[in-house]
Design brief:
DNA-binding, globular, 6-stranded antiparallel barrel, 777 residues, 22 helices
Length: 777
DNA sequence: CAGTGAGCGAGCTTCCGCTTGACTT
């Protein structure tokens, strides 16, 4: 029996540490927190503001096990993470396992290496109750905010909604960004590009340059091209400047999520799932971290690897420091556990994520990239322009060239940006050797119309980045927060279709200016976060009634108070009381404010036929249009607002359109024939069966006759659908679908080769099995 | 790839942070 029991948070960590510690030590895991506020109740005594903890059902067995092992051990070592949450986990362990907090050993380490663990064992300390209390304050505050605000939303907006310190700010960011985009006015401007030629000894090289001025109007741009017509061009200066690029720090959770999204197209939760597997297989360090620190061991092996692979001049050992607000740095940066493995075995996703992590880590230990930037100024002189304006033409063409003189870390890794327009090109542009006084020939000069671009929508990953910047949320909650706001339908991940826009290009070539008008699609965005009507209404409601909670600095400010508790300068109950004193009456006021109307409700006008009021509002099941009031003697009518319209902007006319369908066109076989509109377009419904309306038919004017013919046509089709059944296997059938005959078996579909289409009815059971086998992959 | 589609009438919903479960033979 081991004399020592060490308790850590993660089972994978426990396994590794046990190897370092020898036979006297048993290492177990708490699997995170073992105790929490009750799930379904507020669980806080409102008079004393004291929390009421319980061990959740799913943790009972584990806790019993820990208890038994702790009893047998002579010495228990609490080795949860060195941050607020970790300290609290240790305290809960003390309480639950019946350990004396005044004597129990508390140890911490920031990296899972043998020396770090042995070092930690040498320097145990006692539990830090101030830190524990800071955590209790954090926990209680979040519960109060969440469990007091959410019910207000149930009453004023829609049941089952939620609000919280983190998620509500995330939604706010998205709603405000969307409004910024809507109100952005794009302005046109004109940039001038030139292609010159330099005639040397029997060679002719091209020089591309851009004018240093952007014109506001088409007229100015054309006037400038006119000046160019009989201008001469000369290199007026050449300057060379060395630049350097430095590698990005190693990955944290947030930067890993961003880069995996940009480079691999992973969603935030996908990244975390793949990383979790890599971690469990011992391939990378812990994936939920805000630290950019690397262990000494990693620095040493990285150095060795870089020198081996790329040579000594590529190596540069670097230590990085975290700048992120509120970072708690309980772990290392995310890195391969063994830098000598450049790649691993595993699924393709695992391989790709691992390689990304390897490259980022290696690059962080590599030399700066050196770049030589050349700037060439090309002046133009025009005799006639000079005479009219009394001076030389004031504009200059600028040609920029960048040559990588030493690639350094760029050999393995370059960080991406969210700005898709500026990709790699800025680097590789090479200029010919030019000298001051060189005369250039103009080949082509074009004025291209461009448009100022507004803010861009958030992606999952860029939202995480923003939250981190504001100090809101933690590495373990970024992914869950992103999914919560989508689950609540505050936000949707979707595509925003671009709009077509035309722009002008005027090109001066020879003595002629050729004008063209081209078209482009702009603003096409994929996988961006868009606010829904519900998200907008909830946000506006919370902003109006609880602006302090939604304040972007609320978390940062309250964190200062938690820090003060952790430093022993304030008492945690007082901090919570101070907050609740203001918060509670606000909640009471809002919930008691008697109002006939739901949040976000808007009257569009009156129904032209009946004169009853028409509203847009969030109904029991989402955004609806309502005609009439609930207390009318005539019941109100409802229609769902389709997803391509928004509650904020829908007009009375558009709203009234919604009530024109479904409409009954008549009776057939004694039951009504109804024309409706579903999510797949207009349809005919009769006797609980549906037939899609062809695009050529207008749902508003389609007649009973055509509807009936569609119904009978469909019946005929259904009859012909079942081509063949088999006695051998009732689950197998040959069906006729939109794309011809196919085999369906146990819910799965298999295509039949074209050559057999004419004789599908003769296919035997055996033959079908063969086809299925072949088309499986 | 292989068909889809309504209207909803009691009781419950909800927070943020830690961490991975998964009953047998």
């Amino acid at each position: 029996m081991q004399e020592n029991l060490v308790i850590v948070e993660s089972p994978a960590k426990a396994k590794t540490i046990e190897k370092f510690l020898g036979n006297d030590f048993k290492v177990m895991s708490s699997y995170g927190h073992i105790r929490d506020l009750k799930k379904k109740e507020i669980s806080i005594d409102m008079d004393r503001l004291s929390p009421d903890y319980e061990i959740p059902e799913e943790k009972q067995k584990l806790v019993a096990d820990l208890k038994a092992k702790a009893k047998k051990a002579k010495q228990v070592w609490l080795a949860s993470d060195e941050d607020r949450e970790g300290e609290a986990i240790s305290w809960h362990l003390c309480e639950v396992l019946g350990l004396d907090e005044n004597v129990t050993n508390r140890i911490v380490f920031h990296e899972i290496t043998k020396p770090a663990i042995l070092e930690a064992i040498q320097h145990p300390r006692r539990l830090d109750m101030n830190l524990v209390n800071a955590q209790q304050a954090r926990r209680v505050l979040d519960r109060l905010v969440g469990f007091k605000l959410s019910p207000v939303l149930w009453r004023k907006v829609k049941p089952s909604l939620s609000a919280g310190r983190v998620q509500s700010v995330a939604v706010r960011l998205i709603v405000e960004r969307e409004r910024d985009i809507q109100s952005f006015q794009s302005e046109p401007y004109f940039r001038v590009h030139a292609v010159f030629t330099l005639t040397g000894n029997e060679t002719e090289t091209e020089v591309k340059a851009e004018l240093d001025t952007r014109f506001k109007t088409h007229e100015e741009a054309l006037a400038f091209l006119e000046i160019c017509k009989n201008s001469s061009f000369e290199v007026s200066s050449v300057s060379k400047k060395p630049l350097k690029r430095v590698p990005a720090p190693p990955f944290t959770t947030s930067t890993l999520q961003q880069e995996a999204a940009r480079k691999l197209g992973f969603s935030v939760s996908q990244t975390m799932m793949v990383a979790q597997r890599l971690y469990e297989n011992g391939l990378i360090t812990y994936m939920r971290t805000d630290s950019v620190n690397l262990s000494k061991l990693c620095l040493a092996t990285s150095k060795e690897q870089v020198i081996n692979l790329y040579g000594k001049e590529y190596s540069q050992v670097r230590n990085f420091h975290t700048k992120t607000k509120g970072a708690q740095e309980a772990h290392e940066a995310i890195r391969p556990t063994d830098m000598s493995a450049m790649s691993i075995n595993g699924s393709s996703q695992e391989k790709r994520l691992y390689e990304l992590i390897w490259k980022r880590t290696a690059a962080s230990q590599m030399a700066d990239a050196k770049i030589e930037k050349t700037t060439v100024e090309i002046s133009l002189s025009n005799p006639s322009a000079t005479s009219t304006k009394g001076g030389a033409v004031k504009h200059l063409f600028i040609a920029n060239g960048e040559v990588i003189t030493f690639d350094g870390f760029l050999k393995v890794y370059r960080e991406s940006t969210d700005d898709e327009e500026n990709g790699m090109e800025e680097f590789s542009h090479i200029l010919p050797d030019l000298k001051q006084g060189d005369v250039l020939q103009r080949k082509e000069i074009s004025a291209i119309e461009r448009f100022s671009s507004g803010p861009i929508r958030y992606t999952e990953a860029s939202l995480v980045h923003k939250l981190e910047e504001l100090g809101i949320g933690r590495p373990s909650t970024y992914a869950p927060t992103i999914s919560t706001i989508q689950q609540r339908e505050y936000v949707q991940k979707g595509d925003k279709k671009g709009e077509e826009r035309s722009f002008s290009i005027d090109t001066l070539k020879g003595d002629k200016v050729v004008s063209k008008c081209k078209k482009e699609i702009v603003g096409n965005e994929k996988g961006k976060l868009l606010p829904t009507d519900i998200g907008i209404v909830v946000n506006d409601f919370l902003m109006q009634n609880f602006p302090n909670i939604l304040d972007y600095h609320f978390t940062a400010n309250i964190e200062e108070e938690f820090d003060s508790i952790a430093a022993g300068k304030s008492e945690w109950n007082n901090v919570i009381r101070g907050f609740y004193k203001h918060f509670e009456p606000e909640v009471e006021n809002v919930i008691n404010a008697r109002s006939e109307h739901k949040a976000g409700e808007r009257q569009l006008g009156v129904d032209p036929k009946t004169g009853r009021p028409v509203y847009a509002k969030i109904g029991r099941f989402g955004p609806v249009i309502q005609i009439g009031d609930a207390d009318d003697n005539q019941k109100p009518e409802f229609a769902q607002i389709p997803s391509d319209k928004s509650m904020e902007t829908i007009t009375l006319d558009e709203a009234m359109e919604l009530f024109k369908l479904p409409r009954t066109v008549g009776l057939y076989e004694g039951t009504p024939v109804v024309i409706g509109k579903g999510k797949f377009g207009p349809y005919v419904m009769h006797d609980h069966k549906y037939v899609s309306l062809p695009k050529t038919e207008d749902p508003m004017s389609v007649t009973l006759e055509t509807a009936i013919s569609l119904i009978t046509e469909k019946r005929q089709q259904d009859k012909e659908r079942h081509l063949k059944a088999f006695d051998e296997n009732p689950k197998m059938e040959i069906l006729n679908g939109r794309y011809g005959p196919y085999i369906v078996c146990d819910g799965k579909n298999y295509r039949i080769p074209k050559a057999l289409h004419s004789k599908v009815k003769e296919l035997t059971y055996q033959e079908c099995l063969e086809i299925m086998e072949k088309t499986k992959k």
